[in-house]
């Protein structure tokens, strides 16, 4: 028998960046908010021993327990999907702060082109540029409409950067803190890119260049360039994340509380309204009902979609008919690039997660796509994130994979290797989608989420073109050996690539092709909001977090307005 708790104004499912932002804004507005976090409480004080590559980067200390819940994967509908038993292509977060605890800190605004990609592409290249199997669409909001929310997120997080990129959208204010240090490695990239006629600039970073106090009074420390960002929490409190910014703000209002070890398994719905959520205490096994005036799904992309599916809210996408929206437009990220092997040594063991320089000359529609077989592109960057000895063993092509020659090359090139990497756009295809698995279940008896995904011809063409461009820059940097990334074949769930899963709960202006409106309010239940990278109609040539943060602020504004007026917000 489930225990019913006292009703709250707002319940969030997950307390990471999105849940923390919604909690902070709603609690400041006087709403009573409860956050349900299935992981444990944690924070800066817990990361004093975090410089342990084996524990955190190899054994995944901060991540989801796949023995309790995973996903299943297949390349196409004809294959049998099998569970992901170990962390592979992406890393699923768990605990206070979610994936924002262990992110690298790359913080981008998607381009104006992204939000109107369908109409802009059709106008310039014609409606048949890619063909009918690609389901890209406008987002139901423009960059100009979203810009204030981008700005709010950046000033909450204290993002370090410089407004010198000629290709991105206009900013209403400068970055709150200056860019990070321009190291010799970055200077070499800058010179080479400039020589080739490109426009390099310092990457926007949530590893802060200086100590910063945000408008809510939360302080983020200055980065120490220790090189332990991705897969690690920051022991200095110098990497902006929810547990050092928005969560303390929310707790400080007295209107917000968190229940940890609380795994939500169902969104409860009566008629065209939701009434709350059902969850289990993962320690005691007790079952609870949390009633709420407003339910906000703020967990990771995959879990938001799964919760809607198991709760029978919305119509599941069917690739055979094209009907339905839930699970539609799943996208990943394409990773073109090139590696250079040098004679001279670099301090590659030092750095920070978002210490880097970038060019956008091949991102979005900043170049003419008339004579190429793809749309969009990638931000091409060199980053100095701090290469650690267990996971970083670069060797030139044709080096044996083991033995004395491999060992000798590994030692030689550990500090003599640089890479240029692209965050490439992923355009949705009718055969790439999320659904419920018919066979495998999680620890609570619910179906696992099933991922059906493979790279497309669009992906392969984009990857090849931009890997070649990356190799040209690396050659200009003076590498004695340059190796462009291998061509794409079939997508595999291993090895690690990025955690940039998007789509499945897409936003838009038309319920026929979207799950939520541009306030992230569900079309089928006006008091249900779903916020995260699942709202992306495609994935851009950037990391997703900055755009997720902007959407969370937009969503919070919508919830506050809804609490006063009710009804649809658009």
From TrEMBL:
Keywords: FAD, Flavoprotein, Oxidoreductase. The keyword Flavoprotein applies. GO terms for molecular function: flavin adenine dinucleotide binding; oxidoreductase activity, acting on CH-OH group of donors. It comes from the Bacteria. Residues 220-329 form the Glucose-methanol-choline oxidoreductase N-terminal domain. InterPro entries: FAD/NAD-bd_sf, GMC_OxRdtase_N, GMC_OxRtase_C. Residues 428-552 form the Glucose-methanol-choline oxidoreductase C-terminal domain. Belongs to the GMC oxidoreductase family. This is GMC family oxidoreductase. It comes from Ureibacillus massiliensis 4400831 = CIP 108448 = CCUG 49529.
């Amino acid at each position: 028998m489930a225990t019913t708790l006292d009703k709250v104004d707002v319940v969030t499912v997950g307390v990471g960046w999105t849940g923390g932002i919604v909690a902070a804004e709603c609690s400041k507005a006087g709403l009573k908010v409860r956050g349900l976090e299935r992981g444990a409480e944690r924070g800066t004080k817990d990361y004093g021993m975090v410089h342990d590559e084996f524990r955190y980067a190899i054994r995944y200390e901060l991540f989801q327990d796949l023995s309790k819940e995973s996903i299943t994967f297949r390349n196409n509908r004809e294959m049998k999907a099998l569970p992901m038993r170990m962390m592979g292509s992406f890393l699923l977060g768990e605990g206070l702060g979610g994936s924002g605890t262990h992110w690298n800190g790359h913080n981008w605004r998607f381009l104006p082109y992204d939000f109107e990609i369908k109409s802009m592409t059709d106008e310039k290249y014609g409606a048949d540029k890619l063909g009918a199997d690609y389901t890209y669409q406008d987002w139901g909001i423009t960059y100009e409409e979203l810009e204030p929310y981008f700005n709010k997120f950046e000033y909450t997080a204290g993002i370090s950067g410089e407004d010198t990129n000629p290709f991105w959208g206009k900013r209403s204010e400068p970055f709150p803190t200056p860019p990070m240090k321009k190291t010799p490695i970055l200077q070499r990239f800058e010179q080479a890119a400039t020589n080739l006629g490109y426009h390099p600039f310092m990457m926007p970073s949530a590893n802060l260049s200086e100590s910063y106090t945000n408008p809510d009074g939360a302080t983020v420390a200055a980065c120490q360039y220790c090189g332990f960002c991705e897969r690690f929490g920051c022991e200095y409190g110098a990497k902006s994340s929810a547990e050092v910014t928005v969560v303390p703000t929310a707790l400080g209002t007295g209107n917000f509380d968190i229940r940890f070890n609380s795994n939500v398994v169902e969104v409860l719905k009566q008629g065209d309204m939701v009434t709350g959520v059902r969850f289990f205490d993962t320690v005691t096994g007790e079952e609870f009902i949390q009633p709420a005036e407003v339910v906000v799904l703020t967990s990771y992309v995959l879990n938001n979609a799964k919760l809607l599916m198991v709760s029978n809210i919305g119509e599941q996408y069917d690739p055979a008919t094209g009907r339905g929206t839930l699970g539609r437009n799943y996208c990943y990220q394409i990773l073109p690039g090139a590696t250079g092997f040098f004679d001279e040594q670099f301090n590659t063991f030092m750095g920070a997660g978002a210490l880097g320089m970038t060019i956008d000359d091949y991102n979005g529609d900043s170049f003419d796509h008339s004579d190429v077989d793809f749309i969009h592109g990638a931000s091409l960057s060199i980053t100095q994130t701090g290469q650690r000895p267990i996971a970083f063993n670069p060797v030139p092509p044709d080096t044996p994979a083991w033995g004395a020659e491999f060992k000798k090359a590994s030692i030689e090139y550990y500090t003599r290797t640089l890479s240029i990497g692209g965050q490439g756009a992923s355009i949705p295809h009718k055969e790439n989608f999320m659904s419920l698995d018919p066979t495998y279940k999680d620890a609570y008896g619910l179906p696992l989420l099933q991922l059906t995904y493979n790279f497309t011809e669009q992906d392969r063409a984009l990857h090849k073109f931009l890997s070649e461009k990356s190799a040209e820059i690396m050659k200009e940097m003076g590498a004695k050996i340059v190796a462009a990334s291998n061509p794409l074949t079939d997508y595999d769930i291993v090895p690690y690539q990025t955690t940039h899963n998007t789509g499945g709960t897409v936003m838009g202006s038309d319920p026929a092709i979207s799950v939520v409106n541009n306030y992230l309010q569900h079309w089928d239940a006006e008091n249900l909001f779903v916020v995260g990278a699942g709202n992306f109609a495609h994935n851009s040539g950037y990391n997703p977090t900055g755009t997720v943060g902007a959407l969370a602020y937009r969503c919070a504004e919508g919830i506050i307005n809804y609490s006063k007026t009710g009804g649809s917000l658009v």
